[in-house]
Amino acid sequence: MTLNAYEPTIERTLASREEIAATVARLADRIAADYAGKPLLLIGVLKGALHVSVDLAREISRRIDGPSEIRMEYICVSSYGNATRSSGEVRLLKDVDRETAGQNVLIIEDIIDNGHTLAYLRDLFQRRNPATLRSCVLFDKPYRRLVNVPVEYVGMTVPDEFVIGYGLDYQELYRNLPYLAQLKASAFSS
Ligand code: PRP
């Protein structure tokens, strides 16, 4: 779908492209400083975190005093499927391709809601003996957290609405929307 075709179904913008870019830049500042001179392994969580992982990696790479090396891996999990509420059961659809033991692992997520997905991922990677393990989440929805999971880098808190865009989908649409938005109630299929 083109961006124009999405427009009639969008209730309001929650974070513009510029606000998202500034947030990613702020996260990159902190991450680059914290991992200065060290190798860093970014693990993006598909599909939602594809956009933020790429933009964040680019931004970190631009910092002169950042990590000595950056590697990127992707893992694919799903807990929502086509539902709008998480089932709480996380399914591993694709694992990372390489060994993560002994590395500085930074999990990158687009959003945290009830926390089940990130808790599952932190547990998975912790059991693989990383040198360090942290998480970075661009959008935080703190209202319905069911699991207490550490997030060292949080981008911005978003309203308690069904959000779409910048990687986040509704029935696999809207991921390519370049900003974060709230979907109109009428756009939900019954
Ligand atoms: C979304 C999002 C996170 C997870 C967060 O993934 O990308 O991974 O939900 O929710 P939680 O904190 O309530 O567990 P989803 O399962 O929708 O898959 P997707 O990334 O492929 O859209």
Short description:
This protein has about 190 residues and is α/β, with parallel strands linked by helices. The protein contains four helices and nine strands.
Structural description of this entry:
Helix 3 (50-62) links the parallel strand 2 (39-46) and strand 3. The protein has one domain: Rossmann fold (3-Layer(aba) Sandwich). The model has no long low-confidence stretch (mean pLDDT 94). Helix 2 crosses helix 3 (50-62). It is globular and about 50 Å long. The strands form 2 sheets. Strands 4-3-2-5-6-7 form a 6-stranded mixed β-sheet, with helices on both faces. A 3-stranded antiparallel β-sheet has the order 1-9-8. With 190 residues, the chain is of the alpha/beta class. 24% of the residues lie in helices and 30% in strands. It has 4 helices and 9 strands; from the N terminus they run αβαβαβββαββββ. The protein binds 1-O-pyrophosphono-5-O-phosphono-alpha-D-ribofuranose (PRP).
Strand content: 25-35%
What series of H and E elements makes up the topology?
Answer: HEHEHEEEHEEEE
Chain-averaged pLDDT: 94
Number of strands: 9
Low-confidence stretches at least 5 residues in length (pLDDT < 50)? none
Mass-distribution shape: globular
CATH topology: Rossmann fold
Strand order of the largest sheet: 4-3-2-5-6-7
Amount of helix: 10-25%
Taking the sheet with the most strands, its summary is: 6 strands, mixed
Bound molecules: 1-O-pyrophosphono-5-O-phosphono-alpha-D-ribofuranose
- So what's the CATH class? Alpha Beta
Count structural domains: 1
Q: What's the tally of helices?
A: 4
Distance between the termini: 21 Å
Taking all Cα atoms into account, the compactness measure Rg is 16 Å
- The structural class is alpha/beta
